Structures are given as C-alpha cells and as structure tokens.
Amino acid sequence: MLQKQVEIILMRQLASYLTLPVFVVDPEGNLLYYNASAEPLLGRQFDEAGEMPIREWSTIFAPVDERGAPLPPDALPLAIALQKRRPAYRRIRITGLDGVPRELEVVAFPLEGQGRRFLGAVAIFYSVNAR
Fold first, then answer.
1. How far apart are CA 100 and CA 97, in angstroms?
2. Which of 28, 67, 118, 123 is deepest in the core (most CB within 10 A)?
3. What stretches pass through the bilayer (predicted)?
C-alpha cells in the first residue's frame, strides 16, 4: 500500500469520529475511505467494499439526477471538487450496494495541504428521506 499524506490520515481519523457520512478520495479520485455513518447509505461496510478507483465508485452506485437521468461521472460533486478544485453541491439519487435506492444531498470540497499541496477531496452527504 502506498504511503498516504499525513493530512489524509488525519482526515480519515476525523471522519471516523463524525456522525455525518463522509467519503474521502485521493488526487486521482481513488476512494480511500468512507466512514461508518456512510455505510448504511452506501449499502456496504467500507471494510467489505474497500478502496476503489473513480471509474468504479462513480458508476457502481448508478447515480441519477432528480429527474432520473443518469449522471456522468464528471457531473458528480466529488468529481467537480477534484477536477475544478472548488466546492460543489448536488441532490442525486443512488442505488446502494444493498440494492436500495436513496436520495442524497452531497457537498464536496477539495483538500489542500500546507504548501498548497493538492491532497484529494471529501464529500459529505445525507439522506433526503431521513430529515
């Protein structure tokens, strides 16, 4: 396993203590971690799903917009945060890995470390139906 930046290690540690669902990716978009709060919404424990490349996680949940139209990977908030290095928001529908459809509101933002090192991005999301 490649050595991770200390900021990513700390972000993962922080995420593990939060009750908000959190999804963390590296600069190439590879999924590094999602916390226990994200597991029920994504339909699988992170330990079972594991790390995965952007081409997999951006399609495996079959994301669609509010009208049901499929969303291309580059339209997802996390992909926008990675590519444009700015925060992004969108309401989407996914199908969890347990086969259950869910409507989510997603906010994503880039992670920048000291010396302006680009470290990846983070998405925080929650179920619209859980309000």
1. 7
2. 123
3. none
List per-residue pLDDT tens for the chain, 131 residues long.
445 688 888 898 999 999 999 999 999 999 999 999 999 999 999 999 999 999 999 999 999 999 999 999 999 999 999 999 999 999 999 999 999 999 999 999 999 988 899 999 999 999 998 65
Give strand pairing partners of 34: 23
Non-local (6+) Cβ contacts of 61 within 8 A are 42, 94, 95, 96, 97
∠ Cα 111 95 15 (to 5°): 30
Q: How is domain 6-130 classified at the CATH fold level? A: Beta-Lactamase (3.30.450)
Over its C-alpha atoms, the chain yields an Rg (Å, rounded) of 14
pTM for the predicted model, two decimal places = 0.89
